[in-house]
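Researcher: Please generate the 3D structure of the following complex. Treat every line as part of one assembly.
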Amino acid sequence: MMNGTIDQIQTGVEFLNADKAIQRIPEGASIMVGGFGFPGMPRHLSKALVRRTELDQLTLIMNSLGSVSTLNALFEQNRIKKVIGSFFSTNKELVVAYQEGKVEIDLLPQGTFTEAIRLGGAGIPAFFTPTAAGTVLAEGKETRIINGREHVLEQSLTADVAIIRAHKADKAGNLVYKKTAQNFNPAMATAAKLTIVEVDEIVEVGELDPDSIGTPFIFVDIVVKREEV
Amino acid sequence: MMNGTIDQIQTGVEFLNADKAIQRIPEGASIMVGGFGFPGMPRHLSKALVRRTELDQLTLIMNSLGSVSTLNALFEQNRIKKVIGSFFSTNKELVVAYQEGKVEIDLLPQGTFTEAIRLGGAGIPAFFTPTAAGTVLAEGKETRIINGREHVLEQSLTADVAIIRAHKADKAGNLVYKKTAQNFNPAMATAAKLTIVEVDEIVEVGELDPDSIGTPFIFVDIVVKREEV
Amino acid sequence: MGVDIKQYIAKRCAQELTSGVVNLGIGIPTLVADYLPKGKVTLHSENGILGVGPEPDPNEFVVDPETIDLVNASGVQPITALPHASYFDSSLSFTIMRGGHLDATVIGALQVSETGDLASWAVPGKAVLGVGGAMDLVIGAKRVIAALSHLSPKGEPKILPECNYPLTAKNRVDTIVTEYAVFKFREGRMYLVEMVDELTLEQLKEMTPAHYEVAEDFKVVKREVEGEAVLV
Amino acid sequence: MGVDIKQYIAKRCAQELTSGVVNLGIGIPTLVADYLPKGKVTLHSENGILGVGPEPDPNEFVVDPETIDLVNASGVQPITALPHASYFDSSLSFTIMRGGHLDATVIGALQVSETGDLASWAVPGKAVLGVGGAMDLVIGAKRVIAALSHLSPKGEPKILPECNYPLTAKNRVDTIVTEYAVFKFREGRMYLVEMVDELTLEQLKEMTPAHYEVAEDFKVVKREVEGEAVLV
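Model: Done. Output below.
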């Protein structure tokens, strides 16, 4: 059976700086952005996305946008067509863009949002959930009584690109996460055609405990080290 | 905000021997059994289940039964009503019981089986998967074209009891898994009313790296140490 | 409404919680943590932790958005972790919530109906731009404890025959705790189980248009926080 | 069919695999591992590992069912892990498979149809008691390489206009590799791309009732394994 030493291992994962990585995003892309508040938010990739000013007509798939976000410039510059997520009430730029009819918002309960991404990555395109049944967020959606309870049929989410953050990557592209900085990142890594990861540290192959790897390299395309911006 | 020292922490998880743990299983229960071949199979709990001879009319939810299994005695003793899983071809006792009409078998593709358990634990009762579309395993099931591809509506799985195996538990009931012994165990822990875990080792609270915990104690009811049979 | 009333509601909510795993919503529910029995109730936060500990000392802990990796569901407030804590991704966090594994949640409410409907996230006529995890919490938790002031700042009742604000979930509230009373839902009917001694049943009824019955185990209590009387 | 023919099919399958992540089914596909370029192709096994390494030395490794924690998808065969390996539960393992993340799978086949249908798991008239992960593999892998002997032991053709055995999946086969030929599916049509020099096109057609065309890039090859001629 196949053998291999560390030097021989080639997984095809690339190691680039943030601007070169963001250069790979196609026009009008749908982009998943990881993070729940500060932890797990790919800040340097977000800044590089803002810098690449010719990219517009974007769809952002992210749980929330806080009152201060690196990505706010995208709304001021009218580069966002649509946002899908669960909580945008406190972001002034987005609220204004929405009220002016410049941005479309698809609001999902957070659990539906995260499961839609996980199942999108798993090749399961739709699922019935009890969440939001009987509320305005279920309006226009198919419903069905299952086990005596009303459920809503939700569509899974996939994207052209995911920009996520992890704690460490090894040189094969395997990722390790830390504490509450995991959040949506592992699921998003599975659900995009192109997954770009910002990490604190890059280590040699063999340095990560194989049981601790949260995202195997198969889901990773490009790794960007934080300070190499 | 609430504080707590290790001594004060009470999670309600019980620590029993295998026979006392199996004593909690109700008559006619549906029982998920973890393991993929040898790794992750709860052998001592299985033996205790066989020893509790008055338990019958059981439904077993397990991926596969190899040619030699601790649980074979259950078929010889006519204690199993139904089996749900993906691979039973090589187990003589089960094949015979099936041919004699003593056991019903629900065969699912392995990926459908594992996702049905995970989603069962997550409160999502049904999902559309492309797997098995156009095959005999989709017969009698609702199908739908989604994104131009045929999908099958599958029902999620839950159970009265899960008997699973992990590598270590701490005294709060948190579990850590090892290598390919994870398999179906973490999902099954989430999908049963009563989850009984067999472990190699029990350690003090605080000894497990919180990032390494595969199953948080909230999914665990009873922990059994392997040698305490 | 003064701080003391919020503290009273929080303390009264905590009496409902003697063991298990609980998720506390924002607002008054956050205050509940201070009144929980030490070590017996474990707190879950939907951003991915079971075993939330106290906030770190703000004099010693400086938040660096670049490196912070342990916060609560606000996304920005640093916390600590208890010795039995575990971390997980959002999928598992919502498996805990939607899957029915939480013993209880305490959640702030704008309105509650006599059938246990909860409205907690949106106001009619305003753009609906945020829901967060509230719907999953309320659909999944074994017990939903709604914590709210009995009347709105304008003096309007919040416990109604029917909610007229957008719903979070239908028929899911188990217990209502206000500064004046506690109601419980039993087999689909709403019962008054507790009232503070400053009111008569008639006065309470006037503030509470929902249909409810007085429970057999109804009792009248003194409103105290930490031994001190509460100023309304 | 002798061992050498199996080795030839395995070697020919390996030529299709130059990089990426591959899952090898049981039977002939298992032999493919020996012919893969070192370090460039990573093997996935559905029981929860990416980075399958060689089997441990059977003289040094004794299987203890009680403690063994690293096996392949047979559930009993011990393996090793490569330096870049990771472990995961079945949910993530089938996310890799069903979700379209595997670059290829090599899978044994009982029959393949001219529309790319695959039958690999059951025989008509027998009780259907096992399917395993085959359906998920075939539905999800970017390329499905069917590895099979050209004819059944009774001399019956296996590459047919339509499968008459129960299907594993419809329209999913990308490449067929037998001891005589290689077929590829391109835009829904089946093409002969390679044949061994021991046959004529007419002889191959006689053994292959499926409708196929000879590809523009068709070539005739010598059948060799490790430099030695193969005995049929």
